[in-house]
Design goal:
The complex is a heterodimer of chains A (about 110) and B (about 140). Chain A has about 110 residues and is of the alpha/beta class. Chain A has four helices and five strands. Chain A has a five-stranded mixed sheet. In chain A, α1 packs parallel to α2. Chain A starts with a strand and ends with a helix. In chain B, a hairpin with a 2-residue loop joins β2 and β3. Chain B contains three helices and five strands. By secondary structure, chain B is an alpha+beta fold. Chain B is about 35% helix and about 30% strand. Classes of the chains: A alpha/beta (about 110), B alpha+beta (about 140).
Chain lengths: ~110, ~140
C-alpha cells in the first residue's frame, strides 16, 4: 500500500493505492490521524488505485469520518470497483459522500 | 472440479496468499470478477478473525485452506488450532447511524453478506469453517 498526501489551505487529499487490509491499515490510520491532529478535517480520500479493502481498512475510514465530523468532513473520490464493492457489501457506502472524480470531491468543500 | 490446498502461517501478512488461492478457485468456478472479489474479501475477513482473535497475533498457529471449485460453485474451508470460535452465527443486521456509526463486527457482517452458506464445526481441537458460494441460476 502507498499513501500520498497533498495539503492545501482548506483541505487535504490523501491518495491510497494497493491493498488496505489488516496488515496495512495501521499506516493509513496514522496518516489520517496526523492530518486530523494538525486540524485538517476536510479530507478527500482518493481510492482509485485501491486493489483490496477489508473491514480493517473500512474501520479506519469510519473512525476518521467520525473524527472529522463537526469540524469538517471526510469524503471519498473515484473509488475503484473493488473499493466501491467493499463499501457497499459492508453497508457503509451511504455513510460517506462519494464523488466520481477527484475534482468533484475537492470542489464539494 | 478442482481442489486447491494451502497452509499459511497465522500472520496478517500471509492472508493475501489465501486470497490469491481463492481467486484461482473462483476462476475455475467461472465466477466473474465481482463475485471472485467478494469471496476473497470473505476469506480475508475469516483469516483476520483467526489471526487477531483466535491466535491473538501470537506466532505459532497455522491456517489450512482448501478451495474446491465446480462450475458455478465454490467451497472454501478453513481450519485452525485456535480456541473455539464460531463465525457461523449470523450477526444482527447493523443499523447505520450517520451520527455515530459502529465500527465493530464488520468482518462477520461481510462474511455473511457475501457467502450463501457458512457453517462451523469444532473437531479434534481445531476450528473448521466452511463457506459456500453459488452463482445464481438463470432459468431458460
Amino acid at each position: 500500500m502507498e499513501i500520498q498526501t497533498q495539503e492545501y489551505k482548506r483541505i487535504a487529499v490523501v491518495t491510497v493505492t494497493g491493498r488496505i487490509d489488516s496488515a496495512t491499515s495501521a499506516d493509513l490510520e496514522a496518516a489520517l490521524q496526523a492530518l486530523i491532529d494538525k486540524g485538517k478535517k476536510n479530507l478527500v480520500l482518493d481510492l482509485a488505485g485501491v486493489e483490496f479493502l477489508s473491514s480493517s481498512g473500512l474501520r479506519v475510514l469510519v473512525n476518521a469520518f467520525k473524527a472529522c465530523k463537526g469540524a469538517g468532513e471526510l469524503c471519498i473520490a473515484q473509488p475503484s470497483e473493488r473499493a466501491a464493492s467493499s463499501l457497499s457489501i459492508a453497508g457503509v457506502d451511504t455513510l460517506f459522500a462519494i464523488h466520481p472524480t477527484r475534482e468533484a470531491a475537492v470542489a464539494s468543500f | 472440479m478442482s481442489v486447491r490446498r494451502l497452509t499459511i502461517p497465522g500472520r496478517l501478512e500471509a492472508i493475501e496468499a489465501a486470497c490469491e488461492c481463492v481467486e484461482a478457485g473462483a476462476q475455475d468456478a467461472g465466477f466473474d470478477e465481482s463475485t471472485s472479489y467478494a469471496c476473497q474479501l470473505a476469506v480475508a475477513e475469516a483469516c483476520e478473525n483467526i489471526v487477531i482473535h483466535g491466535y491473538g497475533r501470537q506466532a505459532g498457529g497455522d491456517i489450512r485452506l482448501e478451495v474446491s471449485a465446480a462450475p458455478g460453485a465454490l467451497t472454501i474451508r478453513l481450519e485452525d488450532s485456535a480456541p473455539p470460535f464460531n463465525p457461523a452465527r449470523r450477526p444482527d443486521d447493523q443499523e447505520w447511524d450517520r451520527h455515530d456509526p459502529p465500527v465493530g463486527g464488520l468482518g462477520l457482517h461481510i462474511i455473511h453478506r457475501v457467502m450463501d452458506r457458512v457453517s462451523y464445526a469444532r473437531r479434534a481441537s481445531h476450528n473448521r469453517l466452511t463457506m459456500r458460494k453459488h452463482l445464481a441460476r438463470t432459468s431458460g
